[in-house]
Amino acid sequence: MPLQLDVCVSQHIGDRHEQQDRVALLPHPRLRGVVLAVVADGMGGHEGGALAAEQVIHTARQCLEGYSPSEDTPEELLRMIFDEAHTLIRAGRFINEKDPHSTGVVLLLEPTRATWAHCGDSRLYWFRNGQLQQRTDDHSYVGQLVRDGKISEEEASFHPNRNVLLTALGGRETPLVDIGHNDALAAGDAFLVCSDGLWGYFADAELGGLVATQSAREAAEEMMRRARSRGRGEGDNLSLALVRLNEIPVAKPGLASVRRPVGSTPVTSG
């Protein structure tokens, strides 16, 4: 089934003095239909967090350039990105005399599959026709409390330690990286990668409704608008990359072919 990518990347500084998030949508330089979406949420004081998040994006771009599906697996690529970013951020502690850390969430889209990895509390959501199929588990203190059944998702939203992470890139310990995948992409699939400054204001079902009923750009703009409103002057940095997979209508014989919307990227599945 021929599919078409509808994509949008969006950011807002929120009510902070500095933007320490970084987000990027990176097409493979040689392989058609191979795209990497990355969100990194930096921490570490003035400029330190921004440097760490920037390192995640830079490392992802470099690793993608060397990626060859005939020689490498998607999992190997994603682990390489996180391992190298962690090492380089750690090295930056001595060079810049700062204490930089960063979360990271990376989505690799290929013509027939999607593979993702994350470290920290930046998230990936996979929706199909608006229904949540999978969501990454936060590597955070409250995330662990929810998994242990000690508090609910709603209680986690207001917990005083909700920003305490169990792992991050650039820390003293080897970072925890979880990997997920979808090996059968289909029309109606949508992937949202975002920082906690965005997802903290939404229930899963609300996000699913937005990505199912609007274009990627419209949905991203509405997410930003609602998050900013709900932040009430105390909002964190906001970052997201949204990818929707739409079926390409097949032109009937004798009719002009369907024109592809500007900014979309065709891929083929199946």
From TrEMBL:
Domain PPM-type phosphatase: 6-245
Bilayer-spanning residue ranges: none
Gene3D superfamilies: PPM-type phosphatase domain (3.60.40.10)
SMART domains per record: PP2C_SIG, PP2Cc
Protein's recorded name: Putative phosphoprotein phosphatase
